[in-house]
Amino acid sequence: MRKDYLVRGVAFDKQVRIFVADTSKTVQEAQKRHDSWSTSTAALGRTIIGSLFLGTALKGDDTVTVRIQGEGPIGYLVGEADAKGNVRGYIKNPQVSLNPNDLNKIDVAGGVGARGELIVTKDLGLKEPYVGRVNLISGEIAEDFTYYMTSSEQTPSAFAMGVLVNPDESVDHAGGFMVQLLPGASEETISQLEENLVNFPHITELLKEGKTPEEILELVCQGGNPKVLGHMPVQFHCTCSKERFAQAMVSLGSEEIQSMIDQDGGAEAICHFCRQKYIYSAADLEQLQKETE
Ligand SMILES: [Zn+2]
């Protein structure tokens, strides 16, 4: 399998902006780390892909976090991305596997729940983060991101996201696109784009056929003379470290650390995002205690 990447482009005389990504390996990595089952994998994968697309608007070290809180059996979902194609995510209940929906697809809306909220937090390096929130409109996630972008960020957009899961729970293919109308887009452009999208094949089918993100970009923007402007590698990447968790323990204070030493002879921390486990010996903790002074 080729490495994951995202392409960005424009079409229709720069009235349309588009991003297309193959995220097969990235979502596979998330599946493996969370040991997730089909419905959870599809929901987590779509959330990560959507976060990746929101990340394309960021700069420098800024990050965006998307939290989807529905009433379905998978509980909440979190996806996070930066401007450099680094993404990570987690899910409350990774082991949900529902029967397929009426279209014989993974029932993501059944897992997420049709009622709930999508909350976007952008850390832009300012004192306060930007927070935008919308109610879920379908629970299928792509429609919910579409609704968020159009209503909360006033950028008419369409998202497509797909995750194809093998019978052994591994990820066969995953990817998506985000297409946006820029100010001044004409009626002709809008109707041509709608025509292109109305019976558009599933993105995972196209990836499975071997289509590249560039070729998918061409298909979405047919008749609009699309141009690819750039590429970016995409990967599952977590920013956790033993040191970061240690600093969190230091902030608990000396007494709390002493009780970990007395009761457990050490401590263990597990990262929500990547499931990496960090182990602290009694000696490690004594060292941290000195830092609290
Ligand atoms: Zn981590």
From TrEMBL:
<feature type="disulfide bond" description="Redox-active">
    <location>
        <begin position="271"/>
        <end position="274"/>
    </location>
</feature>
<dbReference type="InterPro" id="IPR016154">
    <property type="entry name" value="Heat_shock_Hsp33_C"/>
</dbReference>
<dbReference type="GO" id="GO:0042026">
    <property type="term" value="P:protein refolding"/>
</dbReference>
<protein>
    <recommendedName>
        <fullName>33 kDa chaperonin</fullName>
    </recommendedName>
</protein>
<keyword id="KW-0862">Zinc</keyword>
<dbReference type="InterPro" id="IPR000397">
    <property type="entry name" value="Heat_shock_Hsp33"/>
</dbReference>
<comment type="function">
    <text>Redox regulated molecular chaperone. Protects both thermally unfolding and oxidatively damaged proteins from irreversible aggregation. Plays an important role in the bacterial defense system toward oxidative stress.</text>
</comment>
<dbReference type="Pfam" id="PF01430">
    <property type="entry name" value="HSP33"/>
</dbReference>
<keyword id="KW-1015">Disulfide bond</keyword>
<feature type="disulfide bond" description="Redox-active">
    <location>
        <begin position="238"/>
        <end position="240"/>
    </location>
</feature>
<keyword id="KW-0676">Redox-active center</keyword>
<comment type="similarity">
    <text>Belongs to the HSP33 family.</text>
</comment>
<keyword id="KW-0143">Chaperone</keyword>
<dbReference type="InterPro" id="IPR016153">
    <property type="entry name" value="Heat_shock_Hsp33_N"/>
</dbReference>
<keyword id="KW-0963">Cytoplasm</keyword>
<dbReference type="GO" id="GO:0051082">
    <property type="term" value="F:unfolded protein binding"/>
</dbReference>
<dbReference type="GO" id="GO:0044183">
    <property type="term" value="F:protein folding chaperone"/>
</dbReference>
<dbReference type="GO" id="GO:0005737">
    <property type="term" value="C:cytoplasm"/>
</dbReference>
